[in-house]
Amino acid sequence: GGAPEAGRGRAASEPAAMAAAGGFVRELERRGGPALRLEQRAAGGVGCVVWDAALVLAKFLETGACPLARRAVLELGAGTGAVGIMAATLGANVTVTDLEELQELLLVNIENNKHLVTGSVRAKVLKWGEDVTEFQPPPDYILMADCIYYEESLEPLLKTLKDLTGPDTCVLCCYEQRTMGKNPEIERRYFELLQADFELEKIPLDKHDEEYRSSDIHIVNIHRKQAVGSL
């Protein structure tokens, strides 16, 4: 089920365009002006397309539920940068992060949309599980869209989240619930591990953007558990 709008983002829906051009531009409408223009790539794996969860999270940011102006925002596993760049158009100071091989695509998309940015946006390499000193102090927000799909990346991702979050950091994790293969088990394991250190609160579907929502795409608000007393 879900909105037809969200469905347009499915990577498989435009293979001809991808094959013809080696990539294509995806437009993401904005409430407050011209659409974001996001380049995608035909080759290069999962980071190179705008996934539905990224659309849903980007459009959720536009609802104003989380005040972003002048806030420090870090996106993990940014891919095309859709979510982080949207945050930057809403006044946030954003660092979009992903692996080395995705930096060029991130830079292209930052350049394509820089005239819409009212905060700031930069791209940096961040490999989950590695040192995050250069990303300190903790940001106000951490954004993640569809970052839970590799079993081997769960532990490094959780380490990075723990290392990056302060007591006031709000993590917004958006993911598409997948029923195939190992996906349900990986999701269950991820949230089980997460709950050791974090409080989780699901954002109700009626709080998502009216058009960009789908019953199988969830947004979870995640905060560090507050330490009780001191050791």
UniProtKB/TrEMBL annotation:
GO cellular component, one term: protein-containing complex
GO biological process: methylation
Classification via SUPFAM superfamilies: S-adenosyl-L-methionine-dependent methyltransferases
The UniProt record lists the keyword S-adenosyl-L-methionine: yes
InterPro entries documented for this protein: Methyltransf_16, SAM-dependent_MTases_sf
A Gene Ontology molecular function term of the record: methyltransferase activity
Methyltransferase is among the record's keywords: yes
Keywords: Methyltransferase, S-adenosyl-L-methionine, Transferase
Taxonomy, superkingdom: Eukaryota
Name of protein: MT21D methyltransferase
UniProt source species: Asarcornis scutulata
